[in-house]
Design goal:
This protein is an alpha/beta fold and 312 residues long. The protein has 3 domains: 106 residues, ATPase, nucleotide binding domain (Nucleotidyltransferase, domain 5), CATH 3.30.420.40; 63 residues; 104 residues, no CATH class. It is built from 12 helices and 7 strands. The strands form 2 sheets. The protein has a 5-stranded mixed sheet. A two-stranded antiparallel ribbon has the order 6-7. α1 packs across α2. It is globular and about 60 Å long. 32% of the residues are buried.
């Protein structure tokens, strides 16, 4: 029996579901009732992949429900899906057409099947997003404060900063409490902070935004983090290598640890100095440190061991 590839276009209120190659299409509500209806509809059918785009808060509950139902999930980058649709010559755009396009994307390209994040990772993700937003608000408020001359406005902005700091402490406490409840997460955090350059906040950010750490090949870890060099070459022409794609938040989470590691981690400091002494720009050398850092983190979690200079 031919296995089906299911494409799902996720929006705030609805889920458009297309079965390939059968061609069946239905629309469901994006809520627990709709999730149950989808599972009942496809229960007796063999499924190779269920493909959907990452759409922030709209896809998370759906992803968790489909994972709990035991379906093989493929969460794809919206940019990749868009380019695939353009390659097919799909100019018009409707939810129904997008669901069909995602089903064909899965059938032709066979993206990797990955399990849905656990509930604790999903909860940590929400808290991490809130923490990032609060930090941005704090930076913006501090910048505004510098330019204020009105005593009233200065008092208000200080009150705002005090409120932000209070909320930030509450969110960070909630993150620590969730991590402390999970033995596996506690161990992974301990491994990451054993690496010179990675502090607890960066460690939690990496695990939240890249929960696959410890299960990937080295090149996969570099690619997912957006630190793998991409080459450009045609005939005799060879362009400069560059980095692109991957998970932006992971790359951001690696930046400060890489800066610290380039100074204080003996192995990565040597790598940074070697590259800059050969004429590589500091930014390129730092990206290489970020790449080695995520590959190292992945390997240590995979092997369940702390960092040590003689084995790194």
């Amino acid at each position: 029996m031919i296995k089906l590839t299911i494409g799902v276009d996720v929006s705030k209120d609805t889920l458009d579901v297309h079965l390939h190659p059968a061609g069946d299409h239905r629309q469901f509500s994006n809520d627990p009732r709709g999730f149950r209806s989808i599972v009942r509809w496809i229960a007796a059918r063999p499924v190779a992949r269920l493909v959907f785009e990452a759409t922030g808060p709209y896809h998370r509950a759906f992803e968790r429900a489909m994972g709990e139902a035991g379906l093989p999930l493929c969460k794809v980058n919206p940019r990749q899906a868009k380019r695939f649709g353009e390659a097919l010559g799909q100019l018009a755009k409707t939810d129904r057409m997008d669901a069909g396009m995602l089903a064909r994307f899965g059938a032709l390209l066979e993206p990797d099947v990955r399990p849905a994040p656990s509930k604790i990772i999903s909860d940590l993700k929400d808290l991490h997003v809130a923490r990032t937003a609060l930090i941005k608000d704090r930076t913006a408020a501090k910048n505004r404060e510098k330019n204020l001359t009105s005593p009233l406005l200065r008092r208000q902005i200080r009150q705002r900063l005090s409120s932000i700091e209070s909320h930030l402490k509450e969110v960070e406490t909630a993150i620590r409490v969730l991590i402390d409840r999970d033995e596996s997460l506690r161990r992974k955090i301990a491994i990451l902070v054993s690496i010179p350059g990675i502090a607890e906040r960066s460690a939690s950010a990496l695990l939240i935004d890249m929960p696959e750490l410890g299960t990937l090949a080295a090149q996969e870890a570099a690619a997912l983090s957006g630190t793998a060099p991409l080459t450009r070459q045609s005939g005799k022409w060879a362009g400069k290598a560059f980095v692109s794609g991957g998970r932006v938040n992971v790359r951001k989470a690696l930046y400060m640890p890489a800066l610290v590691a380039a100074r204080f981690n003996p192995d990565l400091k040597e790598k940074y100095i070697c590259l800059t002494s050969r004429g590589k720009p500091p930014k390129v050398a730092l990206t290489a440190v970020m790449r080695k850092l995520i590959i190292l983190a992945n390997a240590l979690i995979r092997d369940d061991r702390d960092w040590s200079p003689e084995r790194a």
